[in-house]
Amino acid sequence: MKLHVSTGPHVLTREVTQTLMLDVLIALAPTTVAGVYLFGLRAVWVICVSVIAAMLSEYVWQKLMKQKASIKDLSAIVTGLILGLNLPSGVPLWMAALASAIAIILVKQLFGGIGNNFMNPAMFGRAFLLASWPARMTSFFLPERLLGNSQAAFGVDMISGATPLVPQKLGITLDIPLSDLLLGNIPGSIGEVCKIAILIGLVYMLVVKVISWHIPVFFVGSVALLSWLLGNDPLIAILSGGVLFGAVFMATDYATNPMQKIGHIIFGIGCGTMVVVIRKWGNYPEGVTYAILFMNCLTPLIDRLSSRRVYGMVKNHV
Amino acid sequence: MSKFSFRGGIHPLHDTHEGKDLTRNKPVRAYASKIVTIPMDMHIGAPSNPIVKKGEQVLLGQVIAEAVGGIGIPVHASVSGTVTDVSAKIMMRKVPSMCITIENNGLDEWIPLNPLGSVESADSTKIIQAIKAAGICGMGGACFPTHIKMSPPPDKQVDIIILNGAECETYLTADFRLMLEQPQKVVDGLRIAMRAMNVKRGLIGIEDNKPEAIDAIKKAAAGRDDIEVCTLKTKYPQGGEKQLIKALINKEVPAGGLPADAGAVVLNVATAAAIRDAVVEGMPLINRITTVTGKVKEPDNLLLPIGTLVNEAVEACGGYSQEPGKIFFGGSMTGICAPNEEASVTKANNGLVVFNEKEAIIPPEDNCIRCSRCIYACPVYLNPYAMKKAFDMDKMDVLENKLNVKECILCGACSYICPSHQYLTPAFKDAKDIIAARRVSK
User: Fold this and answer.
1) Do the domain assignments include residue B313?
2) Please, which residues have CB within 8 angstroms of residue B382's CB and are 6 or more apart in sequence?
3) Residue B272 and residue B158 share a domain
4) Distance between CA B405 and CA B383 in Å, rounded?
5) Domain identity same for B18 and B122
6) Do B122 and B261 belong to one domain?
7) Is residue B298 part of a domain?
8) Is it the case that residue A252 has pLDDT exceeding 80?
9) Cα angle at B27 between B22 and B30, to 5 degrees?
């Protein structure tokens, strides 16, 4: 009789990378549905193209490099979906595909695949498009189907426009009802407008413990606080752009945020601060993408500096 | 009522009640092994020195090996009969262990026993010596000689004795059945230990998944205001010595120090029962309750003579129910794998678990996704993620000096929780071994 001999533990949790990614996909479902409802068929195409392009890029790259296929861990689908939800519904489809391919190959695979990328792939894909075709990336369609009946701020005949952050940047105060901000009756990227749907996803991820609350709360909290200190309406600051989507789905990306709880708090505050700084003093009306990418780059440093006291030891300095 | 707990930890096999349902309701059944092979190095410290020869007749409880050195303890015959072999065999350690094999003649002839006295009357100055003579060592798994634990350095003030009835390990119900069926023995053992160490306060910590045991122990300790029964949250590794001390008295054992530095001594409930038997009955430690479970036909809690072989213990439970792929002593988190079926039950073996081939296979490592679960799970607040990175890059100095790998208690929580099956605990065990070997060679 041949017996296996190994060091414990001899049992492992059933939670694996694939199930975690599946939970993220489930959490993204309400946002996706809301985006499709609001922006119509066009949104379906953008989302499908970015998801399929992401999967295909990963598959082909790993085939060419003779690596083990990791398509089953669902992470490419998550990247593709998050990217798609981050694009305006009017974006040309080839741009969505290109961004996906860059996200998967340049950011994820070239650095060693899942877990080894130092920047959020979807974020980088979006930043790439934003830098290359800024006009196309910042003209948003107004939702095809408005929820509720209030369209006062934008007017019925308006088919495309900027997010409410643009007038805010120019010092114009828009009078958008809170219900419109929450339901998504504003221009914006496919997935970022319906805040209710994002919050449902957040609650799901917290309940199944895929993420902890620290990053979203400190991210959003610092945006609200700093915007208020700078004299802007904190509610508009949180609810009109991509802050909530970024804080819930992108800043919480495991690979690109710090490992320790204290690191999560620093990361969240850093993201929030950068968003407000870019919005106030930068050239862009919105800063979520660059804020998160900036903090991604600081993650190794934060990890290095954050330590915790080991049981039975006085505070140790790493 | 508030429940005592610690920071970190995991809930292994939570949906199957920690795997304990298989044997939870099985009363302890005494089993007489036909043959026993007793290793001389069951305990931590110098191996005992055999004083019997092949062919010699021995009685139950007779000393068959003498204690060596200050930490050593004697070994006693766990069956009466004929010594058939005294030789080195491969048991649970990497190097062969000297073993004494005895064939049971079934007569159960005891040596004359010399009890010290009752719980109240036993001469307290002689208790610790009696514990050593009975060959008692920690029965929760570590097998550290109990008389040493109970003789802390004179500069350490111990003012509390904690009995560990947490039994947080998966699959095991041995301590549970002991507390349920013989609560008085456990409480008496604690009282004897308190008298021997002149300690005025005793705590018994039990996880809340064992309410029947909590009730039984509470009843046995009723009317004693120096003994308190504490309900612990069911969480692994609640029964780790350091975690138990943190949970119950909110103190930390200093790094590199002893529980006595936190003013406490921790004993397993089975050890307490053995102390009581040694003092009140004069009985040496020759058998123990072992949960035999997993892929055996009738999982059970057996009272097994020390030295019972794996195949006989399994036979006592109706044999294998499936082709075994892995057999380990202890629970599934920290259990030590038996190399073959001729390995034997030692004083520390509270469980014997059989896994089939499918359960035995540990999946290959995937990429770490930096999910932080290992960090949140670590009950000594280490950084398993960084430790594994350092180990993979062979940075032993970083592991030792910056990441404090020597504080790792090898509980397995990080490995269990890792969604990409990183071999964390095995790596840290290797690292600790390498660092220890380096220190010796210096």
Assistant:
1) no
2) A310, B403, B404, B405, B407, B408
3) yes
4) 9
5) yes
6) yes
7) no
8) yes
9) 115
The HSE-up count of residue B258 (CA atoms within 13 Å, CB side) is: 17
Q: Residue B164: inside a domain, yes or no?
A: yes
Residues whose CB is less than 8 angstroms from the CB of residue A56 and which lie 6 or more positions away in sequence, other chains included: none
Pair (B270, B388) in one structural domain = no
In angstroms, the CA B383 to CA B385 distance is: 5
The mean pLDDT value for A192-197 works out to: 93
- Rounded Cα distance between B63 and A280, Å, is 84
Taking each helix axis from N to C terminus, what angle separates B269-276 and B183-197, rounded to the nearest 10 degrees?
Answer: 80
| DSSP track, A221-262 | HHHHHHHHHTTS-HHHHHHSSSHHHIIIIITT-GGGS-SSHH
B129 lies in the same domain as B258: yes
Residues in chain A within 8 Å Cβ distance of B16: none
| Same domain flag for B244 and B123 | yes
Residues in chain B closer than 8 A to A73 (CB atoms)? 366
Distance CA A273, CA B148 (A): 57
A142 has a pLDDT exceeding 80:
no
Mean pLDDT of B45-51: 93
- Whether residue A268 contacts residue A219, with contact meaning beta carbons closer than 8 Å, is answered with yes
Segment (H or E) for B386: helix B384-392
Q: Quick check: A147 pLDDT over 70?
A: no
CA distance B79 to chain A (A): 28
Paired strand residues for B137:
B145
Q: Are B345 and B99 in contact (CB under 8 A)?
A: no
The total domain count for chain B is 2
Residue B27 burial class via C-beta count within 10 angstroms: exposed 0-12, middle 13-18, buried 19 and up: exposed
Spatial contact of A235 and A181, defined as CB atoms under 8 Å apart: yes
- Shared domain for B378 and B235, answered yes or no, is no
Task: Give the C-alpha separation, B48 to B41, whole Å.
Answer: 7
In three-state secondary structure terms, A146 is coil
What does residue B159 show for φ and ψ, rounded to 5 degrees? Answer: -120, 10
Strand order in the sheet with B35-39: B35-39, B97-104, B81-89, B57-58
- CATH number of domain containing B245: 3.40.50.11540
Determine the Cα–Cα distance for residues B139 and A313; give it in Å rounded to an integer. Answer: 28
Q: Could you tell me what percent of chain A has a pLDDT over 70?
A: 88
Taking only the tens place, the pLDDT of each residue in B292-301 is: 999 999 999 9
pLDDT, mean of residues B130-142? 92
Q: Which of B251, B281, B311 marks a domain boundary?
A: B281
Nearest-CA residue of chain B relative to A210? B371
C-alpha distance from residue B26 to each of A226, B20, B177, B220 (Å): 63, 11, 8, 21
Q: Which of B371, B387, B432 to mutate to test the interface with A (most CBs of A within 10 A)?
A: B371
> What is the average per-residue pLDDT within B228-242?
95
A216-234 per-position pLDDT tens digit: 999 999 999 999 999 888 9
B225, B250, B281 - which closes a domain: B281
Domain of residue B425 covers 373-441
Confidence of residue A155 (pLDDT cuts 50, 70, 90): very low
Do residue B419 and residue A11 have CB atoms under 8 angstroms apart? no
Contact yes or no for B338 and A8 at CB 8 A: no
A 41-100 near B (Cβ less than 8 A): 70, 73
Out of B170, B402, B425, the one facing A11 most closely (by C-beta) is B170
Q: Between A and B, how many residue pairs show a Cβ–Cβ distance under 8 A?
A: 158
Confidence of residue A179 (pLDDT cuts 50, 70, 90): confident
Looking at the complex, does the CB of residue B293 fall below 8 Å from at least one CB of chain A?
no
Tell me, what DSSP letter sits at residue A102?
I
pLDDT at residue number A152? 43
- Quick check: is B210 in a domain? yes
pLDDT given for residue A188 in this prediction: 87
Mean pLDDT of chain A: 88
Contacts of B360 in chain A (CB under 8 A): 3-4, 10
